[in-house]
Amino acid sequence: MGTLVDNKFTWVIQNFDSLQSNKITSDQFVVGGCKWELIVYPKGGNKVGYLPLYLKVTEYESLPCSWRREAKVIFTLVNQLSEELSEKEEVQVRWFNDKSYSWGFVDMLLLTKLHERDSGFLVNGQLKITAEVDVLEVIGRVVESEGETSQPLKKRKQDNDFVLPSEVNGFLLLPSQMDSLERIFEKHPNMALQLRGKKQTVKIACMNVLLSLIDTLCQSMQDLSIDDLSQAENALTYLKNSGLKVDWLEGKLEEVKEKKMEEEIGKTRIQELEEKLKCFKQKYSDTEALLEKKKEELKDLKQKCSDTEALLKKEKAEVLATRTPPLALDDVV
């Protein structure tokens, strides 16, 4: 099972610890308009005792003569208990061609460490691998579908019909992207003048980042996160460093950031007030209960006062009844 997000492919292998196969191949995925797949050898490879992991260009036999792919690749064996303990291997630049269509590491991880109990690499028999593939240059292109939002330059096949990219201001775009970018170039015709003459892959990457940045700015405040804004700032810096004139986006980004900060401050204030209200309600409830208790005590005291007054009145009457006139001398003698 594999999933692709941007240029990062995640491959989850179930029941890895009980597999009998010497070689396992992932689902195919498309990055940079090129088809790829991962290959892993569960029982080890040329270097005994280690787990090998490779990236391969698929269907390379059908590619044009002298095809080449320049890519930066990062492999990660994910530690599912602590990502900080994951095993990562990275290469800055690697050329793939008809004589070297696969590449990888023969010693990603010791098999004993992989199968070690509580190592974090195998959890319930599940192994998780990620591959980040950043395609820098393509020679001899057969463009494949990457999904509607992955890459601007691609040839999509549906019902055996191909939808070819069209050119707008020197950029190859899909029909679904043309409307947005035509409107952008109409308002900012000089935005990409410095990209003229640069490789199409560079142009594509810039347009992809631009559209992604605009999508981010168009999100609702509720869906937008602080991390999204941080990535948007990085995207804006990338576009500026690439030569795009995007000053008009800086103001919009600052405006969205301010609104988001206001929302975050408001949410914090709401949370504080909710906590206060909860506290006050609890105090009110406690005080009300205490008041009811005091009312009962007051009622009891009032009854005791009434009973005591009645008893006092009775005693006074009895005392008065015993008071007779004083005896005279004749009564005593």
UniProtKB/TrEMBL annotation:
Residues 256-318 form a coiled coil. Keywords: Coiled coil. InterPro entries: MATH/TRAF_dom, MCC, TRAF-like. Residues 6-133 form the MATH domain. This is MATH domain-containing protein. It comes from Arabis alpina.
